[in-house]
């Protein structure tokens, strides 16, 4: 049902380019809004949990041999097809280190369509810190109707697991999130990594109220109008 077709793009912005502002979001949306809808999905969590590797696995289909701490944000895009509609999934790979993210936080949350919270299954502190990440997200006015999922990464390190699945599941339930336990590294898990983003894309497609359906220009200004779709067919 949900087929991917090969097209992905990467970009970057860091604290030195804090001026990119929402105009980037908007212009990107406008360029393609008539043919292709764009879903902005942000990936949040402690430094070193594997956010860059997960987003790279989804958009690039591989595990990067070497990563460095993300500075500001890296953009990765992937075009997917869901029930015959081409959709662009725009993944915002955010920085986990405070010093590399502080000037960008507003931009992360602006007009976000879905949020992926990541922890490292081998590091209990990264799981405990999820509360802080959720508070930050809520503190930036992200509505509870914006879909959120929880991802426990590095499941390939089976001998080092510190966060039991049932503990993670309880936490996910309590916060109305789906839980994915996976590994960006293990190629056998790549489908599972894809399903994190595809599941969100399917939900967003069904939840048309969140999407820019029509773009109208009035007095040189752009008005985005929304229309809810009562027939939600998200498979998740
Ligand atoms: N074993 C294992 N290592 C992983 C996995 N995912 C990421 N790593 C490693 O974890 C380290 C951190 O990965 P990143 O993806 O750079 O972490 P990050 O969350 O983007 O970190 P920041 O950019 O600082 O926020 C790297 O050494 C990766 O190779 C995984 O699934 N399994
Ligand atoms: Mg990173």
TrEMBL record:
Its EC number is 3.6.5.2. The keyword Lipid metabolism does not apply. It is a lipid-anchor. Its cofactor is Mg(2+). CDD domains: Rab33B_Rab33A (cd04115). Keywords: GTP-binding, Hydrolase, Lipoprotein, Membrane, Methylation, Nucleotide-binding, Prenylation. It is found in: Endomembrane system. Its main location: membrane. GO terms for biological process: Rab protein signal transduction. GO terms for molecular function: G protein activity; GTP binding. PROSITE patterns: RAB (PS51419), RAS (PS51421). It catalyses: GTP + H2O = GDP + phosphate + H(+). Gene3D superfamilies: P-loop containing nucleotide triphosphate hydrolases (3.40.50.300). One of its GO terms (cellular component) is Golgi apparatus. It comes from the Eukaryota. It is an enzyme of class 3 (hydrolase). Pfam families: Ras (PF00071). PANTHER family: PTHR47978. Belongs to the small GTPase superfamily. Rab family. This is small monomeric GTPase.
């Amino acid at each position: 049902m949900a087929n991917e077709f090969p097209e992905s793009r990467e970009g970057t912005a860091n604290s030195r380019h804090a001026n990119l502002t929402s105009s980037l979001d908007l212009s990107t949306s406008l360029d393609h809004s008539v043919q292709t809808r764009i879903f902005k999905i942000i990936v949040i969590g402690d430094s070193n949990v594997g956010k860059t590797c997960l987003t790279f696995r989804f958009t690039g289909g591989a595990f990067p041999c070497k990563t460095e701490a993300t500075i500001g944000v890296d953009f990765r895009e992937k075009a997917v097809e869901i029930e015959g509609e081409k959709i662009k999934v725009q993944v915002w790979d955010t920085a986990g280190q405070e010093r590399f993210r502080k000037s960008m936080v507003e931009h992360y949350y602006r007009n976000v369509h879905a949020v992926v919270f990541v922890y490292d299954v081998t590091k209990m502190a990264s799981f405990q810190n999820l509360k802080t990440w959720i508070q930050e997200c809520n503190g930036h006015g992200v509505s509870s109707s914006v879909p959120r999922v929880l991802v426990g990464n590095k499941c390939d390190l089976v001998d080092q697991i510190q966060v039991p699945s049932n503990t993670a599941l309880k936490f996910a339930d309590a916060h109305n999130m789906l839980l994915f336990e996976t590994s960006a590294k293990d190629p056998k898990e790549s489908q599972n990594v894809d399903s994190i983003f595809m599941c969100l894309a399917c939900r967003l497609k069904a939840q048309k109220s969140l999407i820019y359906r029509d773009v109208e220009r009035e007095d040189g200004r752009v008005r985005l109008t929304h229309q809810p779709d009562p027939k939600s067919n998200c498979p998740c």
